[in-house]
Amino acid sequence: MARYKAYSYEQKLMIPVSLENQILAGTFEYTLNLVIDEMDLSSFDERYDNDSTGASAYDPAILLKIILYAYSKGIISSRKIALLCEENIVCMALAADTRPHFTTIANFVSTMGQACIDLFTKVLAVCYSENLIGKQMFAIDGCKISSNCSKEWSGTKAELLTKVEKIGKAVEYLVTKHRASDLDPDDPTERKREEESVRKLKAKAAKITSWLGNHEEKLGAAGTPVKSNITDNDSAKMATSHGVIQGYNGIAAVDDKHQTIVWATVYGDNNESGHLPEILEGVEDSCRKTGIDQNVLTSVKITADTGFHSERNMKLVCEKGIDAYIPDNRFRSRDVRFKDADRYK
To answer: Among residues 344, 258, 252, 263, which one has the least CA distance to residue 304?
Structure first.
């Protein structure tokens, strides 16, 4: 008969933990901890007015460390980040065993955008001083990021008005059915369910109507109406390999030496090519502010995929003298070698 080692969940362990020794040299968290401690974070002080009254606040350095560490692990939920401070020993060490509430983390992320942009510039300057940026080639690419809102609340103004009409008809049907059921002894549970459905549908219609009265039609690059979203109107419907999502197009310019991001932003627009002028301007401005180069676009190669190709963009890079490599998105239709491609699909 097999024998196994004995075990018990009732035993207790008293394990001494040195938080400082959890942040090991050569790891991402070690670098993160070191860089944040060396940064001037005085720009974060403006949001606080508790020097004489009020409760003390969490140090921005602590919040930045745990948020950036969580982001590096692909964790972006404020609730999950707060949970890391209770369960993950590395995150506990970075937070010095403080445990900020998830609402504190969410508020910090949502209100400190400009201060974080300034911090990004400082970190980029440190990367350049440490010779982490080769300044030979910048690769520009984007990825689709899902937004925390539903596609159900998307549509042009005409589509949303049609949705309100459909909701009105559904309410009318339920009310008529309810009146008819009042004549006969019916299941009270079913009646209550119908009343709740009517209430929800009316609230939904009121929400759409209120939004339409306070917002203008959203127009695309061609000047034609595009779908708005009631919950997050800056987002847009994006076609991805996993289907259509409601979200943003995150675009970054990355240096080829150590894949250091030199500039990044998000657009609520699926059309990448229309943003290339802003992207190039942003890259140049970022490199100028950090002391990388005053006119970096004339000395660095720029690469991007076919999503950024357009006649306007090709004229732009030629006029600016940029050494750019962007594949033609219609090369197959002009290449004689592909003239019979449709026949053998």
So the answer is: 252
For residue 282, how many other CB atoms are within 10 A of its CB? 17
- pTM of the model as a whole: 0.73
**Which residue, 65, 69, 75, is CA-closest to 95?**
65
CA–CA separation, 20 vs 299, rounded Å?
43
Q: How far is CA 86 from CA 12, 92, 93, 97, 123, in A?
A: 19, 7, 10, 8, 28
- pLDDT, tens only, 52-96: 888 888 888 999 999 999 999 989 889 999 999 999 999 999 999
CB 62 within 8 A of CB 96: yes
Backbone angles phi, psi at 251, to 5 degrees: -120, 135
Block mean pLDDT (10 aa), the chain, length 345: 88 84 90 88 81 84 92 90 92 91 90 82 86 90 81 73 75 70 61 74 76 72 71 76 81 90 85 87 88 86 89 90 87 75 63
Residue 34: name the closest of 126, 161, 107 by CA.
Answer: 126
Give the span between the Cα atoms of 53 and 278, in whole angstroms: 44
Is-contact 250 266, C-beta < 8 A? yes
Distance, in Å, from the CA atom of 246 to the CA atom of 268, rounded to the nearest integer, reads 9
